[in-house]
Amino acid sequence: MVGVFGPRQSEVKLGFTDTGRLNCEVRYTSFAAARASKAEQGQAEAAAAQALSQALEASAQLERFPKAVFDVSAMVLEAGGADAAVLVTAASAALADAGVELHDLVSAVQVVKCGGQLLLDPSLEEGGAAEGSLLLAAMASTGEVTHMEVRGRWGDGELREGLELALGGCGQLRGAVREALLAGMEERAGGA
């Protein structure tokens, strides 16, 4: 679940800034996934929030909101694999649905290398058995990558193939998110 709140005036006294900012927060419910400790869960939440912020800032037209803050709050109810990618895509859709002007929707996917095969948006089990992992967030219409994390061992050809697979997945996902947003707008307009 993702909610967007704002714009509101920044409470932080950092001086005047020409652009607004995104304040991203990610929380996992206690039953979302088996975490070893609260410290590990806190680290996972902080890493996901940082990835979310970095992936979305390039897309949001924050220059239109000087000194303003948008709060993006995400709650993971069930961790099923590729959680960071799902969070980025859902938060981008929530920003667009909230009327925040974007350069483009940001869609994100995860690709893992498992047993010599590349898997797009792996399950929790597949992600845990992966030899390498690639998280890619992109604005598909421009081809601009807004966030990328690569972990594990990748050969040059494997990484290139993984990037192509991820960019293709981002393009398909962007289309699906765009259709869902348009359907939601039509539904709200029809119910008014």
Automatic annotation (TrEMBL):
<dbReference type="GO" id="GO:0034475">
    <property type="term" value="P:U4 snRNA 3'-end processing"/>
</dbReference>
<dbReference type="GO" id="GO:0000176">
    <property type="term" value="C:nuclear exosome (RNase complex)"/>
</dbReference>
<dbReference type="Pfam" id="PF01138">
    <property type="entry name" value="RNase_PH"/>
</dbReference>
<dbReference type="GO" id="GO:0071028">
    <property type="term" value="P:nuclear mRNA surveillance"/>
</dbReference>
<dbReference type="InterPro" id="IPR036345">
    <property type="entry name" value="ExoRNase_PH_dom2_sf"/>
</dbReference>
<dbReference type="InterPro" id="IPR001247">
    <property type="entry name" value="ExoRNase_PH_dom1"/>
</dbReference>
<keyword id="KW-0539">Nucleus</keyword>
<keyword id="KW-0698">rRNA processing</keyword>
<dbReference type="Pfam" id="PF03725">
    <property type="entry name" value="RNase_PH_C"/>
</dbReference>
<comment type="similarity">
    <text>Belongs to the RNase PH family.</text>
</comment>
<dbReference type="GO" id="GO:0005730">
    <property type="term" value="C:nucleolus"/>
</dbReference>
<dbReference type="GO" id="GO:0003723">
    <property type="term" value="F:RNA binding"/>
</dbReference>
<dbReference type="InterPro" id="IPR050080">
    <property type="entry name" value="RNase_PH"/>
</dbReference>
<dbReference type="InterPro" id="IPR020568">
    <property type="entry name" value="Ribosomal_Su5_D2-typ_SF"/>
</dbReference>
<dbReference type="GO" id="GO:0071051">
    <property type="term" value="P:poly(A)-dependent snoRNA 3'-end processing"/>
</dbReference>
<dbReference type="InterPro" id="IPR015847">
    <property type="entry name" value="ExoRNase_PH_dom2"/>
</dbReference>
<feature type="domain" description="Exoribonuclease phosphorolytic">
    <location>
        <begin position="1"/>
        <end position="101"/>
    </location>
</feature>
<keyword id="KW-0694">RNA-binding</keyword>
<feature type="domain" description="Exoribonuclease phosphorolytic">
    <location>
        <begin position="104"/>
        <end position="167"/>
    </location>
</feature>
<keyword id="KW-0271">Exosome</keyword>
<dbReference type="GO" id="GO:0000177">
    <property type="term" value="C:cytoplasmic exosome (RNase complex)"/>
</dbReference>
<protein>
    <submittedName>
        <fullName>Uncharacterized protein</fullName>
    </submittedName>
</protein>
<keyword id="KW-0963">Cytoplasm</keyword>
<dbReference type="GO" id="GO:0006364">
    <property type="term" value="P:rRNA processing"/>
</dbReference>
<dbReference type="InterPro" id="IPR027408">
    <property type="entry name" value="PNPase/RNase_PH_dom_sf"/>
</dbReference>
<dbReference type="GO" id="GO:0016075">
    <property type="term" value="P:rRNA catabolic process"/>
</dbReference>
